[in-house]
Design brief:
The protein is an alpha/beta fold and 210 residues long. The protein has a domain of 101 residues: Rossmann fold (3-Layer(aba) Sandwich). It is built from nine helices and eight strands. It has a five-stranded parallel beta sheet with strand order 2-3-1-4-8, with helices on both faces. Strands 6-5-7 form a three-stranded antiparallel beta sheet. Helix 4 runs parallel beside helix 5. The protein binds adenosine-5'-diphosphate (ADP) and zinc ion.
Amino acid sequence: MNLILLGAPGAGKGTQAEVICDKLSIPAISTGNIIREALAKGTEMGVKAKSYIDAGQLVPDEVVIGIIKERLAKDDCQKGFILDGFPRTIPQAEALDAMGIVIDKVIDIEVPDEKIIKRMSGRRVCSKCGASYHLEYKKPAKDGVCNVCEGELIQRKDDHPDTVLDRLNVYHEQTEPLKDYYSKAGLLKVVEGQEEVADTTVLTLKALED
Ligand code: ADP
Ligand code: ZN
C-alpha cells in the first residue's frame, strides 16, 4: 500500500506514520528527517536546506523531489511506503504522479491552528538520534533524556513560537491545496486529530480499512 500522510506541521503525522509502519511493515519516509540527517552530516544539500528550515519556509521543490526519487527507488519501498511530510506543494504531488507512482490513500490529520501552536511548543527531539517526544503527550521516561539512546532532548529551532506561525502560514498557503487535489482524485480520508494520541491512532487505522 502506498500512503501519504497530510496535515499541518505538528499535527502528529510522524507518530501516526510510525504506527502504520509497524502495522503494515512498510517504511515511513519523512522528508523532514532525511533533510535533518543531511544537515547533521553537513552534506551540501543539508547546508542549502538549513536557511529555509530555520526560517520556517519550505525547502525548494527540486531538492525534496530529488530526495524522494532517490528514497523510493530503494528495495524496501517495493511493497509500499508511507510518505510523511511529502508532498507539501502541488508541484511535488505532480512530480509523484509523473514518476508513475500510484497512491492508494491520503490520510489527512486535521488539527485546529490553536492546538497546533500549543502542541509545537511542547515538542522535543533527541539531539543524538532524532526520536521525538512531547512534554505533555509523549513524555520520555526520564525528563530531558531520550528513551532510546539517552541523548539530550532539545527543542528544534523551527519549533520556536515565531517560526511556528510562519510554518502554519506556509501550510495553509502551499500545502492545504493538496486536500482538494487528492479529494478530486478520490483518495482523501480525513482523520480528526484527538487529544490523546491513542485515540487518533484508532481513527487512522480505521481510515486505512475504509
Ligand atoms: P513537521 O514535523 O513539523 O511536520 P518536518 O519535520 O516534516 O516538519 O519538516 C521540517 C522542515 O523541513 C519543513 O518546515 C521544511 O522546511 C522542510 N521540509 C520537509 N519536507 C518538505 C517538503 N516536502 N517540501 C519542502 N520542505 C520540506
Ligand atoms: Zn535518542
